[in-house]
Here is the input.
Amino acid sequence: MKIFVDGSKRAAVSRMFSVWKKMGHDVVDTSKEADVQLSVIKINVKSGLPVVLRLDGIYYDKAENYNARNSDISRSHSMADAVVYQSKFSKVMCEKYLSKRKTKIYDIVYNGVDSSRWSNPREHDGINVVSCAKWRRWKRLRETIEIFIEFLKHYPESKLHIVGPMKR
Here is the structure.
């Protein structure tokens, strides 16, 4: 199968190229050469090909009009032939706040990361909470810390691990 990637080849998508190659698939530069279109976050190119939409999640900040901010994502969600969500939580939030999918075809791929890297966890006390992002206001770091402080009241041995660069 030949895959046309519509838009930016983000890290999660780029990591999949070698996997697709091993499966006998190729990433091609134009939709004319392709069998399927992979769109990331929103559909930018209307190629006439079957479209798989890759979604990490939605914008959700009560301080702003998140419905308007999500309008392009919502439209793409309803137009796609299949959706690949970044996590189960991502799927739940997208299904709750975006327009209904036109098909029931979906899958969950956790950022294209080889999960076997974490297959031998160390024993520890408490609960580790890990939050990773390129931190921007809409990623809600402050709220993450605030809710973790409440969480500590019930699970005092827990640790919060914040990973990723912060943009000011």
